[in-house]
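User: I'm writing a short methods note and want a consistent example. For Tryptophan synthase alpha chain, I'll paste the sequence; you return only the structure tokens, no commentary, since I'll be parsing the reply automatically.
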Amino acid sequence: MRVEAAFAKTKAEGRAALVGYLPAGFPTLADSIKAVDIMIDHGADVIELGLPYSDPVMDGPSVQRAADQALAAGFRTSQVFEVTEAVAGRVPILVMTYWNLVERYGVDRFARDFKAAGGAGLITPDLIPDEAGEWIAASDAHELDRVFLVAPSSTEERIAATVAACRGFVYAQSVMGVTGARAGTSAVAPDLVRRTRAHTDLPIGVGLGVRSGEQAAEIAGYGDAVIVGSAIVNCYLDSDDVPAGHQRLAELTADLAEGVRR
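Assistant:
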């Protein structure tokens, strides 16, 4: 299922999409599959699977801890295709990954295997379109979406070049710095969305920091998607056991889904 279909559905319903992020293999391989099913059952429209990496310089402490746990349990890059295949078909499944992991696996090979597993596309936070020729070719060959990031520091020229290379949606990184749940949403996010919208008709997803339905409703007032990651990871990090984490995730996702529908 492609991302375009999910956004067509949410637009027809007059609301923003809810995008949920979780590292594949966390808290365990099987439980990451269960967690994705929980998110979809409780209202997530798109899923981002993080690809655990040993040097996650753009991730905050929660995502770093989750990635470390997955890697310590023996997670391998190829297992992201196992998770994708297990959950694909209900909503679009994207992988969010540092680019050198894809290069190490083989760009065309990764695109081929991910497509075969039912994946929709990649979010590549540390890859800029100027250096993405191999990925653009592979994503075209295997009909995958490609999501690049814009940030508050992006110039108009950079925003225009970035959105021109995107397919599916544009990821608006609404705060500068690493990922992590925050008490309030970014004051610069509405302006970043406005600036980005001037250059594209693609949906714009807003990420970094959302932890409640109230914040989701606020962002849904100007963004086409609300992206939630660290708060989802914290459902497990802050729970005594995995079943309790599953329960917290169900409650959080339902709250977020209600928020984007206000």
